Amino acid sequence: MKVLIIGSGGREHTLAWKISKSPKVDKIYCAPGNAGIAEYAECVPIGAMELEKLADFAEEKKVGLTVIGMDDPLVAGIVDVFEARGLRVFGPRKNAAILEGSKAFSKDLMKKYRIPTAAYETFEEAEKALAYLETAPMPVVLKADGLALGKGVLICETLSEAREGVKSIMTDKKFGEAGNRMVVEEFLTGREVSVLSFVDGDTIRIMTSAQDHKRAKDNDEGLNTGGMGTFSPSPFYTEEVDAFCREHIYQATVDAMKAEGRPFKGVIFFGLMLTEKGPRVLEYNARFGDPEAQVVLPRMENDMVDVMEACIDGRLKDIELKFEDNAAACVVLASDGYPLAYEKGKKITGLDTVKAREEDGYYVFHAGTRFENGSIVTNGGRVLGVTAVGKNLREARAKAYEAAEWVNFSNKYMRRDIGKAIEEA
Ligand code: AMP
Ligand code: GLY
Q1: Tens digit of pLDDT for each residue in 307-337?
Q2: Is 151 helix (H, G, I), strand (E, B) or coil?
Q3: How far is 341 from 352, CA to CA, in rounded Å?
């Protein structure tokens, strides 16, 4: 079978690597891909938002399965475009991808179906939001309704910060159209855990847990980023937490989407906050996490194509997911300055040293790289995700940091405390 993967980051590299292990697959394409993905896939220069062109390509090459890695094309309806042409595609339709595409939709869904989440109000006018904030407890969380590259969430400590926040989201439209509506949410405290799942419209199968590190600097200081590193499993995701989420969150979400006439097929990512009062949903995503995929997929034993096809065909109840009884850690190597200004085009060395140790559980997944005159150079804020699998989190973390030293480029930057919380747990 020929497989087409849509996207160009570390998540898509991890998907390409995992899908390449399936005996069912004899050719992988990736649009648009990157220099690391090129090892497993033929990269084709079609943008992830060129929906019709992508479908033309899949038709022409007789692609048997298309996997959508990224949120934007899902929210724009790429699955509907492919299905209308009779092409097999893994991911939610537009009317289900709204679970990620609109925070107001997902909050209303949770409220209606009593799925535990932070208290909130939705606003379409800045004046009303400002009036509400006058009496709201601080800190408060402001969220632009639509997709904003993970940046549309502002945590405001004071009323004056919150007023500024409303101005930047709703009046100045700092996140564009995403700010036409805004959710104002209760601030929750606790440990944050990411749980990915496969869903076929009815049945949900939970993958192993993971934890992301979103801030740019050690000790969770600095700006929010797409994610600076992850580990899996999370020691805070206990059996008790799992039981609560199974009873109140996971199946309830799938059933709610079905009841709304928006059956969800694909991956649901549950962003959870483990509060003193129990787990609460912070957000839903309609696709694998990045860099969560980099630590979850290397531990997954199933054939990825089998599981994705079962989701498409509504046969997920016949599948049991299996994860190795070990742990993984991913340290993101970024360009110094990210998420603000940074330089690109720096030559990367040492990639082969990591590649040669794959059998020992060392991996390097490319997030922002490209070829230049026969070399691989940096091409983004997040450049690489150096991942290692070990018998436990401590070992995985030590190995990931060991391998992070094998790879170099002139403006390399990384957090030094990925997974450090586990040593304190
Ligand atoms: P989101 O894009 O919804 O994942 O939000 C980005 C980050 O903001 C999350 O990963 C949390 O760290 C934080 N966040 C979102 N909602 C809340 C909340 N209600 N309380 C505290 N932190 C939050
Ligand atoms: N790592 C968080 C996300 O993929 O949105």
Answers
A1: 999 999 999 999 999 999 999 999 999 999 9
A2: coil
A3: 28
Number of alpha helices (DSSP H) and beta strands (DSSP E) in the chain: 15, 22
271 pocket-lining for ligand 2 (C-beta < 6 Å): no
Amino acid at 123: F
Q: Which atom of ligand 2 is nearest to the CA of 214?
A: 1
Q: Distance between CA atoms of 335 and 377, rounded to whole angstroms?
A: 11
Measure 125 CA to ligand 2 centroid, in angstroms: 29
Integer Cα distance of 191 and 280 in angstroms: 11
Whole-number pLDDT of residue 232: 98
Ligand 2: nearest atom to the Cα of 11: 4
Joined tokens for residue 34: 């990157």
For 338, the token pair is 């990210």
Atom of ligand 1 nearest to the CA of 280: 19
Distance 290 CA to ligand 2 centre (A): 5
Q: Which atom of ligand 1 is nearest to the CA of 185?
A: 19
Cβ proximity of 312 and 380 under 8 Å = no
Nearest residue (by CA) to ligand 2, atom 2, is 289
Which DSSP helix (H) or strand (E) runs through 61? Answer: none
- Nearest CA owner, ligand 2 atom 3: 289
Cα angle 291, 295, 299 (rounded to 5 degrees) comes to 150
Place of tokens 């004056």: 160
The one-letter amino acid code at 35 reads A
pLDDT tens figures, 369-425: 999 999 999 999 999 999 999 999 999 999 999 999 999 999 999 999 999 977 766
How remote is the CA of residue 11 from the centroid of ligand 2, in Å?
Answer: 10
